[in-house]
Amino acid sequence: MKNLLSKVTISAMMMFVMGVTIAQEVDMPEVDQAEKFGDILTAEQIATLEQNKANRQELREAFKATLSEDQLAILEDAELNRREQREALRNTLTDEQQELLASNRETIRERRDAFRDGLTDEQRTALREQRQDQRPDRRSRRDRLRRHGRSN
Q1: DSSP secondary structure string, the chain?
Q2: Averaged in consecutive runs of 10 residues, what is the pLDDT profile of the chain (152 residues)?
Q3: Pseudo-torsion of CA 95, 21, 104, 64, nearest 10°?
Q4: What is the CA radius of gyration of the chain?
Q5: What is the pTM of this model?
Q6: How far apart are CA 91 and CA 84, in angstroms?
Q7: Among 108, 102, 100, residue whose Cα is nearest residue 64
Q8: Residues with Cβ < 8 Å from 28, sequence gap 6 or more?
Q9: Got the DSSP string for 92-109?
Q10: In the chain, what is the straight-line distance between the N-terminal and C-terminal CA atoms, in Å?
């Protein structure tokens, strides 16, 4: 039972990370962190966000470098939607790749938590409000992508 639970947990975590990895393949406009958060965060906090973003990109590239030609072909298969790509890729991952994903996920979580710990209550409130204001826009972007043949 414990073995089954650990397999289910690992599978769920892999789906999340693979979703993030594959979602990065979609061409989205670059958002300038200073423009987006300049009135809420300090220059140092914005620099930390930029560094965390660069680190996430490095982790994605490091993971992608471990993929075999067959695994890369899955990601490039235009006939599969993102969900199908994630599922097909997940079924081909080696133990080492799964461990790398878990390690990457933990690194990202630690950096995110460290950043959040440095926020004031006012900044947390302002960021939460900004995030809620942007949610309808996020959905409309997702709908536009689906209409143009890109799906999850």
Answers
A1: -HHHHHHHHHHHHHHHHHHHHHHTTS------HHHHHTTTS-HHHHHHHHHHHHHHHHHHHHHHHT--HHHHHHHH-TTS-HHHHHHHHHTT--HHHHHHHHHHHHHHHHHHHHHHHT--HHHHHHHHHHHHHHHHHHHHHHHHHHHTT---
A2: 56 57 51 71 90 95 94 91 92 94 95 94 90 71 64 49
A3: 60
A4: 18
A5: 0.61
A6: 11
A7: 100
A8: 141
A9: T--HHHHHHHHHHHHHHH
A10: 32
Tokens 């899955």 correspond to 74
The domain locations on the chain are: 2-22+33-120
**Phi and psi torsions of 23, nearest 5°:** -60, -25
- Give the count of beta carbons closer than 10 Å to the beta carbon of residue 130: 13
